[in-house]
Amino acid sequence: MPSEGGEKPEVGQDQAPAASTKVDWIIKVLRLLAFLLTLDATLVMALNKQTKTFTVATIGTVPLRATLSAKFQHTPAFVFFVVANANAALHNLLMLAVGFAGSKLSFKGLAPLAVPVLDLVNVAIVSGGASAAVFMGQLGRNGNSHARWNKICDKFESFCDRGGAAMISSLVGVLLMIIICAISIIRLRNHYGYNKLALNSSVLP
Amino acid sequence: MPSEGGEKPEVGQDQAPAASTKVDWIIKVLRLLAFLLTLDATLVMALNKQTKTFTVATIGTVPLRATLSAKFQHTPAFVFFVVANANAALHNLLMLAVGFAGSKLSFKGLAPLAVPVLDLVNVAIVSGGASAAVFMGQLGRNGNSHARWNKICDKFESFCDRGGAAMISSLVGVLLMIIICAISIIRLRNHYGYNKLALNSSVLP
């Protein structure tokens, strides 16, 4: 951030500005990656559709065909996956914008508290969406003999493969968002409360 | 916390000790509730089993019966649910212990950073477990005509009801854990960095 140099001597740490600028850029790069991954997961899953024609019976020599489509809308877990990832992509984009405009804006009141808390909420939502989709995908791939649910990925291979790619993208995105949120928390403590905290154990919950 | 009174004047806020003690107790109560809810979710799901005898055919006048069991182990999403909730219950119990022993321990190095970061990771894991179980339960209740997966909750009502209770318990637990983590983040900023932060916008990611 260009607005950092020596104008905040009250922070009271020697190497704080240089280290902070570096961490700022690390967070921005991680956020950009998280944005791209969640956006990718959203688009790949939302555009995932496979239409296939099956021969269901043969009357004499005339085959009777049926055309079936696999769409993400047919599975509630995949709909939640798309909504959760779209929401996270939007959140990451907004936070990137806030980060770049940060030096020009003055944040007061509840605004600075909102960023890590929103990060946290988004981690929970995307983690839920990715996890639900993964287990539904596992069911599609392997089936469940106890519930007599047959696998369907042997019929819709490319639908399953594309869905799996979206899930991997989303899971890596969640991981990056957890890392971003953890860095934010650690940095807050390092910046302001590290030494006091070591003494003031009452901050621990 | 009994060790708080006036021995830490370096915190530098007038009403900090009184407010901090109150927030300490709020966090402890929320954590106890989160512990009980995740433990409840673990036990209810792990002990969930229903055995039922169905008449599958009748030969002459002799009914042919089959006994089927519904167990949580049959569904990978429910296994993950149990593991995630057990892990979160253990985490909350440990953090409660750390909180109560906090005044006697001196935390240095990475230890104080670990609490909110572990909270964050646990929120992500339990959210994933609860969400996967909810969508699998929805599939059991409604089925999915597109994939030709039939509902099974009409045959195993009490298995589904107990599973649903465990899921509600887990979801409320996740919500409480999100609130705990958010309070920790907000408190860190309030304690140490609030006023500085309003000026130092570079802390925003």
Automatic annotation (TrEMBL), chains A, B:
<comment type="subunit">
    <text>Homodimer and heterodimers.</text>
</comment>
<dbReference type="InterPro" id="IPR044173">
    <property type="entry name" value="CASPL"/>
</dbReference>
<feature type="transmembrane region" description="Helical">
    <location>
        <begin position="165"/>
        <end position="186"/>
    </location>
</feature>
<keyword id="KW-1003">Cell membrane</keyword>
<keyword id="KW-0472">Membrane</keyword>
<protein>
    <recommendedName>
        <fullName>CASP-like protein</fullName>
    </recommendedName>
</protein>
<dbReference type="GO" id="GO:0005886">
    <property type="term" value="C:plasma membrane"/>
</dbReference>
<dbReference type="InterPro" id="IPR006702">
    <property type="entry name" value="CASP_dom"/>
</dbReference>
<comment type="similarity">
    <text>Belongs to the Casparian strip membrane proteins (CASP) family.</text>
</comment>
<dbReference type="Pfam" id="PF04535">
    <property type="entry name" value="CASP_dom"/>
</dbReference>
<feature type="transmembrane region" description="Helical">
    <location>
        <begin position="113"/>
        <end position="136"/>
    </location>
</feature>
<keyword id="KW-1133">Transmembrane helix</keyword>
<dbReference type="InterPro" id="IPR006459">
    <property type="entry name" value="CASP/CASPL"/>
</dbReference>
<feature type="domain" description="Casparian strip membrane protein">
    <location>
        <begin position="22"/>
        <end position="175"/>
    </location>
</feature>
<feature type="transmembrane region" description="Helical">
    <location>
        <begin position="77"/>
        <end position="101"/>
    </location>
</feature>
<keyword id="KW-0812">Transmembrane</keyword>
